[in-house]
From TrEMBL:
Record domain Periplasmic binding protein: where: 21-280
The protein's name: ABC transporter substrate-binding protein
GO MF annotations in UniProt: carbohydrate binding
Pfam families on file: Peripla_BP_4 (PF13407)
Record key words, sorted: Signal
Gene3D superfamilies noted in UniProt: 3.40.50.2300
Subcellular location: Cell envelope
Keyword Transmembrane tagged: no
Gene Ontology cellular component list: cell envelope
Length: 307
């Protein structure tokens, strides 16, 4: 029972008649702010109307926003799911209304992959593996136990699950590398600071902090300094994202290594929307290209870093 008026069912519309509804996670991190800006700017540049909602990291708000886009009969719905589970009902509603859905940044764990047309975003397991590889190499010659604290992203979110998995798989190669504590800081700076403060009390001899994003790593830096220690030296820090503040801390020697996760998904999302409008099938999985940064590489990259 496809609703009439959607780009996919009625053939190409002029771009200035297309309407896309985007349900964003929130504004929890520097990465998210850069991602929102890039998406809004890309749609403006393409001359496509973008309806935008901020779910403040709550799944129920995102579901509400998607339902309202269905009611408004937008041409395409795009969203970055706060958590992986619990999307089938609302995605089936979008499907029944004939509105194609694009996942950006984060995945859903649905068994039915006909519920979305494309998933554009990073390989979070690979990001965790890259972080783990740096730690493995850094302590390759150490015969002593290396105590690691992990600051997890939002519980149930794809990047939190996958970055933990990739990291654990790689560091398992060296039994000296031991995650002594692992807790969520919800991808925020305040969360990273609070959790680190608490965990430093129970683990004062920790060697390294692996934070699932820069913001939590930046919060950890504040907690380490407040405890009278030197971040990057007394306690090493590895993070994911490579946003400007993270890169600055890396260049300043307070973070030791960053795995890049690019928030610049706007142009590729516009391309997917245009393909759908033209009646073409976009690729089901589009993986973002990403690199890693050492302290020296951060000094070089910082002056031209866009976000
Ligand atoms: O889903 C991407 C993650 O979400 C980013 O790494 C993090 O900073 C953000 O909040």
């Amino acid at each position: 029972c496809a609703t009439s008026g959607n780009a996919a069912s009625d053939g190409p519309k002029p771009l200035d008649e297309l309407v896309v509804g985007f349900a964003q996670v929130g504004a929890e991190s520097g990465w998210r702010t850069a991602n929102t800006k890039d998406i809004q700017a890309s749609f403006e540049e393409a001359g496509i109307e973008l309806k935008f909602s901020d779910a403040q990291q709550k799944q129920e708000n995102q579901i509400k926003a998607i339902r309202s886009y269905i009611q408004q009969q937008v041409d395409v719905i795009a969203f970055s799911p706060v958590v992986e589970t619990g999307w089938d009902a609302v995605l089936n509603e979008a499907k029944a209304a004939g509105i194609p859905v694009v996942l950006t940044d984060r995945a859903v764990d649905s068994q039915d992959d006909s519920l979305y047309v494309s998933f554009l975003g990073s390989d979070f397991v690979a990001e965790g593996e890259k972080a783990g590889q740096w730690v493995l190499d850094e302590y390759a010659d150490s015969s002593e136990s290396v105590k690691i604290i992990q600051l997890e992203g939002t519980t149930g979110a794809a990047p939190a699950i996958d970055r933990a998995e990739g990291f654990a798989e790689v560091i398992a190669e060296n039994p000296n590398l031991e995650v002594v504590a692992s807790q969520t800081g919800d991808f925020t700076r305040a969360g990273g600071k609070q959790v680190t403060e608490a965990l430093l009390k129970s683990n004062p001899d920790v060697d390294l902090i692996y934070a699932h994003n820069d913001d939590m790593g930046l919060g950890a830096i504040e907690a380490i300094e407040a405890a009278g220690m030197e971040p990057g030296v007394d306690i090493k820090i590895v993070t994911v994202d490579a946003v400007k503040d993270g890169m600055q801390a890396l260049a300043d020697g307070k973070i030791n290594f960053i795995v890049e996760c690019s928030p610049l998904l706007g142009k590729q999302l516009v391309d997917i929307v245009k393909q759908i409008n033209d009646g073409e099938a976009p690729e089901k999985r589009i993986i973002t290209e990403e690199t890693t940064f050492t302290q020296e590489e951060a000094i070089e990259a910082l002056p031209t870093r866009q976000y």
